[in-house]
Backbone:
């Protein structure tokens, strides 16, 4: 039976009895007389067949005088965990429970120290008898035979009489003996410390109170394996004794654990959240977060973790991409097959034709979609164009699909102070995604003593707060002395009251930093200042010796001192491992093993693990226990691997050499060039992996190591590195730097061919910066040098002749013809590339030379073969045919045929992601709207935005977004949804500095806001941009502005104003489709005006409107059939041809419903209501106004709903029966 548990019960009874005696005024001597083993009895259950009871049979302990009882209870959660004979003998985690307690005054009991000493000594005598079955003896006194007192039976009778129950009493000294007859050293220490209380010369370990005794006894039962049972020494592989640290215990972090757990629970509810943890190195930041990761994994979440180091800063984007690439593997591992099928379907729906961009960014997506293939064109294009922003956008779309409330993503980035700014940009973009916010729990840790107040981490925190992202900030300080003492006590398996002096010294040395505490205590063992005493079976030390130990506050010299005593082979292994950052992977180990000089590296690393500097991850990787080990080793160790390893560890070598790059100034020119080539290769590899920040850094170092005359002495690598550096600067957003490099390149190049890559990038930069004339001029100059004869000006008749000649060549072309066309040579592709940029610039300049450029692109294609730019030329030619000034009788039909053929060829023959945004923009904004449903065109333009953002063609992406919003408004998409989308795009225009698209989107937002509620609650000063008509400098902007204001005025019922804007629009419009739509509005508006005052001019407008819309309906019944029916209904109504009007209104309503144009369905119902009201059929009028209400409600237009409701309510009073 557990004598320790019994001792604990007796101690609790004595403490309660002492309080009772004190409150009753009974002398202390009377109490001490009761502190005898014969005054206590144990209540047990029947032992059955066993010869003696065990702990399992204990019910409680009774004190006979005064009459007190305590029950000993084992917590239910431990009942299945603690088994074994050792527990039977010594005890387990038990608690006491008093059935009844004597009444007390409730005040604290204060007694003198002398009284406490007597009480503790008496209890020590009792425990001596309990555990050793005899009373303690003085020196020279002979022990007796240990005969049990006969008073036990009397005590039993008293107990039976007191409780009035059938309770079996057991004589304490009759309990089973300890195994082997040997008392644990911890119990001996308790008893000795109690007996010392009776000595005049008290030892330091003597107890001060009975409360302290109870605390120690409770600890013995709380963790018997650590504090009660004998501890045999444990040795490491090198024969050194180990301390018993709790590997996974978080001391003093209960509050922080609660906060981080609560934050994740909120994310599990379907929202993103962020948490930042600051603290000194070794303060336990990583362990705190790791305490949550198992829970995240258990609930179906995906845990992504990465730890940055000092060598991460220049390639941190590579690390981030790798993190999300690994997410694909996690999804495959944790998802059932049916869920994967649904996920793949969702991904294809989101990415559409832009799927290859995701595959390029995250190659592991192939484990989810094994049949996925990527073309070489995709790889080249994305390498050249994807930048940080496009990567952010692609990851946003990916996480919208794969993360959810049931599968939240936890992104843990450790040591943010060493990551690049672009990493924080990615984090911000994921958390602030407003269009489809993913369920992401971001946790970032950083060393608070290594970041300034203006660090990007704190800037990110401010931006997240301003964006409304829930943010939790934690700061981890060192452990306070109490928690530190608990940690030391656990490590030494000694009572906290005894380790307290030692822990105070350690606290002074380490300020409570957990990592430093561990390192310091291990150093005490290594130096023999903390040693295990085999006779007492516990750790011992001398406080004075420990206090005198020389130690710096950062403890690094301890690590270096330990390293200096190791063998040369282990030191060499540490140096080599340090060159790879925090972890050296199996592939690198294999590479090193192939080198004769490092063939034993694996065995050396195994020894490093035994020394405690590294741990093995799985079976093949080695990781430093903490980065302080890494950096105390790797301060000047880059030479260990210089020139000795293969390309697989290129980045690690380049980063390590960078630490000592200043030393290369004195090296030979040949060595400097060799290292420059190493950096150049690293820059190319980084760019291929989409880490343009790292690429830029490597290439700048590469060029800095070349001789001052490198354009003469090293022309080829100077040309290659300079161009790649310019592309990386451009992708990083440093356009000015890119332009400077390109200008230097063009001044140093030997030939026109060598200048072409620089001219190409410079033209793209000028186009993106809206320097359209400069871009056009540059392309003109380059094409002239390539042999193209481009006229400086063109007459209108020349343009017509050119278009007509080209039309005759391509009017019957099909997608099969394009697919079967031969591939053009590379030289044509170069010319077509510059023509493509030139065409974009000419379009924005509204220059008539656009016709020449497009026609020339088709001529070159038909003569020399097809390239990926050819399809855009065909689509642009189709768009020209849709221009009102050049449209022929069959021009729209031919344009549609050519455009469809080119789009089909673009998808089937070329998978170039950089061409998708431009092709989608031109085709679906100008050509397809004549023949394909508006709803589908709006959707494809939105895909063009996604493709442009993913490929890095941001300018074209936002033009797609702008036109998609305009098209969606005309298609009758739900207005509140459109408002959310346009606000999302407007927010991005600020991020990407797209001022032109911002103006367009602001105009469209104004239209949407007015249509919803006249801007009363949906208007926002953040998005209002005043564009005075008389100061607009492009006809494109004028055209859009007048078009939108015409729509706004018509739906608000401002007919005169609407007529003014329609006239202004018609004066600048060159777009046939928008001309056809505005004529529909013009006709409806003219009918409204004629009801007030008819005129020949207005009647002419209505007839012309019907004629134009009929022509449009012949090409697209879907888009225009309801419109022609509504115009005809209005004409019949105006002419009082009521029968035909009724038929046409019904046809307009039905046709609009079939096309999904809920807004125009509502408009037809509203106008029909006015017609029936005019002819006196109030019942029918009420019915149509009711239908209009439902349509406008579905559309989301409160403005129109209010107007129609007013008409409905006024008629309802005149109709006696419910017409509905």
Residues:
């Amino acid at each position: 039976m557990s004598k320790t548990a019994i001792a604990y019960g007796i101690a609790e009874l004595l403490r309660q009895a002492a309080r009772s005696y004190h409150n009753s005024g009974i002398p202390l001597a009377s109490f001490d007389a009761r502190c005898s083993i014969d005054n206590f009895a144990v209540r047990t259950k029947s032992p059955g067949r066993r010869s003696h009871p065990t702990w399992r049979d204990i019910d409680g302990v009774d004190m006979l005088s005064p009459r007190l009882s305590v029950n000993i209870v084992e917590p239910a959660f431990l009942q299945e965990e603690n088994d074994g004979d050792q527990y039977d003998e010594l005890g387990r985690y038990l608690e006491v429970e008093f059935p009844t307690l004597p009444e007390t005054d409730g005040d604290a009991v204060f007694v003198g120290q002398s009284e406490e000493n007597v009480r503790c000594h008496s209890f020590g005598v009792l425990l001596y008898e309990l555990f050793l079955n005899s009373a303690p003896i003085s020196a020279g006194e002979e022990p007796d035979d240990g005969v049990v007192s006969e008073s036990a039976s009397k005590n039993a009778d008293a107990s039976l009489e007191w409780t009035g129950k059938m309770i079996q009493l057991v004589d304490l000294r009759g309990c089973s003996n300890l195994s082997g007859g040997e008392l644990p050293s911890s119990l001996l220490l308790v008893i000795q410390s109690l007996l010392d209380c009776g000595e005049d010369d008290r030892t330091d370990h003597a107890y001060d109170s009975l409360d302290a005794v109870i605390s120690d006894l409770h600890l013995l039962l709380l963790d018997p394996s650590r504090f009660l049972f004998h501890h045999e020494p444990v040795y490491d592989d090198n024969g050194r004794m180990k301390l018993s640290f709790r590997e996974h215990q978080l001391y003093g972090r209960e509050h922080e654990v609660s906060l981080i757990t609560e934050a994740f629970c909120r994310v599990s509810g379907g929202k993103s959240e962020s948490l930042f943890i600051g603290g000194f190195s070794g303060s336990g930041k990583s362990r705190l977060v790791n305490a949550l990761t198992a829970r995240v994994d258990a609930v179906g979440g995906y845990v992504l973790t990465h730890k940055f180091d000092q060598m991460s800063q220049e390639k941190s984007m590579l690390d981030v991409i790798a993190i999300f690439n690994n997410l694909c593997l996690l999804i495959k591992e944790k998802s059932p097959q049916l869920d994967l099928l649904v996920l793949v379907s969702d991904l294809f729906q989101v990415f559409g034709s832009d799927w290859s961009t995701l595959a390029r960014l995250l190659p592991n997506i192939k484990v989810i979609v094994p049949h996925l293939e990527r073309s070489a064109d995709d790889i080249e294009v994305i390498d050249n164009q994807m930048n940080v922003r496009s990567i952010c956008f692609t990851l946003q779309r990916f996480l919208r699909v794969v993360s959810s409330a049931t599968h939240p993503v936890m992104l843990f980035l450790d040591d943010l102070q060493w990551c690049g700014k672009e990493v924080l940009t990615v984090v911000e973009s994921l958390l602030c995604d407003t269009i489809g916010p993913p369920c992401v729990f971001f946790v970032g840790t950083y060393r608070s003593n290594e970041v300034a107040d203006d660090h990007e981490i704190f800037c990110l925190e401010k931006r997240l707060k301003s964006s409304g992202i829930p943010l939790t900030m934690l700061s981890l300080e060192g452990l306070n002395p109490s928690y530190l003492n608990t940690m030391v006590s656990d490590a030494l398996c000694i009572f906290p009251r005894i380790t307290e002096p030692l822990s105070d010294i350690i606290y002074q040395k380490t300020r409570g930093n957990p990592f430093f505490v561990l390192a310091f205590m291990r150093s005490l063992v290594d130096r023999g200042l903390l040693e295990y005493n085999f006779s007492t079976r516990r750790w011992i030390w001398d406080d004075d010796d420990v206090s005198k130990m020389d130690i710096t506050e950062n403890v690094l010299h301890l690590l270096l001192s330990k390293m200096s005593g190791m063998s040369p082979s282990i030191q060499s292994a540490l140096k080599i491992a340090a060159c790879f950052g925090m972890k050296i992977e199996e592939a690198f180990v294999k590479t090193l093993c192939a080198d004769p000089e490092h063939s034993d590296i694996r065995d050396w690393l195994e020894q490093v693990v035994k020394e405690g500097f590294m741990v093995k991850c799985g079976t093949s990787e080695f990781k430093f226990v903490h980065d302080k080990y890494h950096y105390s080793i790797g301060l000047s160790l880059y030479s260990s691997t210089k020139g000795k390893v293969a390309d697989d560890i290129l980045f690690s070598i380049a980063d390590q050499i960078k630490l000592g790059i200043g030393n290369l100034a004195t090296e030979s020119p040949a060595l400097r060039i060799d290292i420059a080539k190493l950096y150049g290769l690293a820059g190319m590899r980084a760019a291929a992996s989409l880490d343009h920040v790292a690429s830029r850094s490597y290439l700048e170092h590469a060029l800095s190591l070349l001789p001052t005359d490198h354009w003469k002495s090293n022309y080829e690598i100077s040309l290659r590195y300079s161009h790649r550096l310019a592309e990386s600067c451009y992708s990083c957003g440093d356009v000015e730097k890119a332009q400077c490099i390109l200008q230097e390149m063009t001044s140093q190049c030997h030939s026109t061919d060598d200048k072409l890559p620089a001219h190409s990038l410079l033209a793209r930069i000028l186009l993106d910066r809206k320097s359209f004339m400069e871009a056009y001029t540059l392309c003109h100059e380059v094409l002239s040098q390539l042999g193209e004869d481009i006229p400086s000006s063109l007459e209108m008749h020349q343009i017509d002749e050119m278009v007509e000649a080209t039309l005759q060549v391509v009017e019957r072309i099909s997608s099969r013809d394009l697919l079967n066309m031969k591939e053009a040579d590379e030289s044509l592709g170069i010319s077509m590339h510059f023509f493509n940029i030139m065409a974009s610039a000419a379009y924005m300049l509204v220059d008539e030379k656009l016709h020449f450029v497009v026609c020339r692109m088709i001529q070159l294609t038909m003569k020399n073969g097809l390239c990926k730019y050819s399809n855009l030329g065909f689509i642009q030619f189709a768009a020209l045919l849709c221009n009102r000034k050049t449209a022929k009788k069959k021009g729209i039909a031919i344009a549609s045929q050519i455009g469809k053929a080119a789009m089909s060829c673009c998808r089937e023959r070329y998978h170039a992601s950089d061409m998708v945004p431009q092709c989608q923009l031109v085709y679906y904004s100008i050509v397809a709207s004549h023949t394909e449903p508006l709803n589908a065109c709006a959707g494809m333009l939105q895909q063009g935005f996604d493709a442009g953002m993913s490929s890095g063609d941001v300018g074209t992406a936002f033009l797609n977004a702008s036109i998609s919003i305009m098209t969606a408004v005309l298609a009758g998409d739900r207005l509140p949804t459109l408002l959310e989308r346009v606000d999302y795009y407007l927010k991005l225009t600020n991020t990407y500095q797209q001022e032109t698209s911002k103006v367009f989107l602001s105009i469209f937002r104004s239209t949407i806001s007015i249509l919803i509620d006249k801007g009363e609650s949906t208007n926002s000063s953040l998005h209002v941009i005043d564009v005075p008509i008389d100061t607009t400098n492009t006809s494109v902007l004028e055209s859009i502005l007048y078009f939108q204001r015409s729509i706004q005025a018509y739906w608000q019922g401002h007919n005169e104003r609407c007529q003014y804007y329609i006239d202004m629009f018609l004066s600048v419009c060159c777009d046939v489709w928008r001309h056809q739509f505005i004529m529909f509005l013009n006709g409806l508006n003219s009918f409204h005006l004629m009801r007030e005052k008819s005129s020949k001019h207005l009647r002419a407008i209505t007839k012309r409107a019907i004629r134009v819309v009929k022509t449009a309906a012949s090409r697209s019944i879907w888009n225009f059939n309801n419109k022609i029916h509504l115009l005809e209904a209005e004409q019949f109504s105006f002419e009082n041809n009521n029968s035909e009007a009724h038929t046409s209104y019904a046809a307009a309503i039905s046709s609009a419903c079939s096309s999904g144009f809920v807004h125009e369905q509502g408009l037809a119902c509203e106008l029909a209501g006015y017609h029936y009201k005019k002819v006196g059929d109030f019942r029918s009028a009420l019915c149509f106004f009711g239908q209009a209400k439902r349509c406008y409600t579905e559309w989301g237009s409160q403005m129109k709903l209010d107007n129609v409701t007013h008409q409905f309510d006024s008629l309802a009073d005149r109709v006696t029966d419910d017409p509905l």
Remarks:
- The chain has a mean pLDDT of 80.
- DSSP finds 54 helices and 15 strands in the chain.
- The CA atoms of residues 820 and 1030 lie 51 Å apart.
- The longest helix spans residues 3-24.
